[in-house]
């Protein structure tokens, strides 16, 4: 359902392994006019991840300082690591009227809903739980105990789908990306 008022900020959330990062990477390639926020995290980089591109990789102490200084719009602990959205770069892009996207988990999405009620919240859903498990294990970036923790969290996230303004099923990367862009453009005329 379209929102009552236009929003310049879209939040993409959904369970770990559903394909948020993959869809956002495709969106960055094909739709560079949409600005994608770079989060801070205490998680160590995966092979190929670059500081300042996929994430700002920070220590737990640095993250705590960012929280104390009020530098993060929202933040959350997820599967043993901390994640947060830097406030200043997002505020600059919003002030400039640019369409902006955050890719964050459920607790963060709820915080954004509270602080920026005009934000448009999109839930990326898997075709099935079995496919979600296949994708998370198939990515091969986490050991079995971390995959189990992320799947536990995925069940909680799936139960919150109804809190979102729109649901996009990631059955196909190209189709899901196009549907997401359609929503971003619908809320950012
Ligand atoms: N539509 C799709 N069909 C099949 N495989 C997909 C699809 N979308 C993503 N994948 C694969 O699923 C795996 C997880 O994708 P990705 O890392 O983008 O998920 P994520 O939601 O960003 O996860 P996390 O929240 O843990 O970072 C990757 O191996 C990716 O290539
Ligand atoms: N609340 C926030 N969640 C975030 C942020 N950046 C990323 N995330 C989410 O964390 C999990 C795990 O990410 P991963 O890269 O370790 O697989 C995933 O759901 C991301 O969407 C953030 O700034 N705030």
Which properties best describe this structure?
single chain, 189 residues, alpha/beta, Rossmann fold, five-stranded parallel beta sheet, four-stranded mixed beta sheet, 7 helices, 43% helix, globular, binds adenosine-5'-triphosphate, binds ligand LQESDW3C
Q: Mean pLDDT score, rounded?
A: 93
CATH architectural name: 3-Layer(aba) Sandwich
- Tally of individual domains: 1
Q: Identify the strand order in the major beta sheet.
A: 2-7-1-8-9
Instruction: Give the full name of the CATH homologous superfamily.
Output: P-loop containing nucleotide triphosphate hydrolases
CATH class: Alpha Beta
Secondary structure topology:
Blueprint: E1 9-13, H1 20-30, E2 35-36, E3 39-41, E4 55-57, H2 60-68, E5 72-78, E6 81-86, H3 87-95, E7 100-103, H4 106-115, E8 120-125, H5 129-139, H6 144-159, E9 166-169, H7 173-187
Parallel strand pairs: 1-7, 1-8, 2-7, 3-4, 8-9
Antiparallel strand pairs: 3-6, 5-6
The structure holds adenosine-5'-triphosphate and ligand LQESDW3C.
């Amino acid at each position: 359902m379209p929102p009552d008022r236009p929003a310049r900020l879209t939040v993409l959330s959904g369970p770990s392994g559903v394909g948020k990062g993959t869809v956002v990477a495709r969106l960055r390639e094909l739709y560079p006019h949409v600005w994608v926020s770079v989060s801070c995290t205490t998680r160590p980089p995966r092979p190929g991840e670059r500081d300042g591109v996929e994430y700002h990789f920070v220590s737990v102490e640095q993250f705590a300082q960012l929280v104390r200084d009020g530098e993060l719009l929202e933040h959350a602990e997820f599967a043993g690591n901390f994640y947060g959205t830097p406030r200043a770069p997002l505020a600059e892009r919003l002030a400039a009227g640019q369409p902006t996207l955050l890719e964050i988990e459920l607790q963060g999405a709820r915080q954004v809903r509270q602080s920026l009620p005009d934000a448009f919240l999109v839930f990326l859903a898997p075709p099935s739980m079995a496919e979600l498990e296949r994708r998370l294990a198939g990515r091969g970036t986490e050991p079995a105990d971390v995959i189990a923790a992320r799947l536990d969290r995925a069940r909680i996230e799936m139960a919150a789908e109804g809190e979102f303004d729109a649901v996009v099923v990631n059955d196909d990367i190209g189709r899901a990306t196009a549907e997401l862009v359609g929503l971003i453009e619908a809320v950012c005329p």
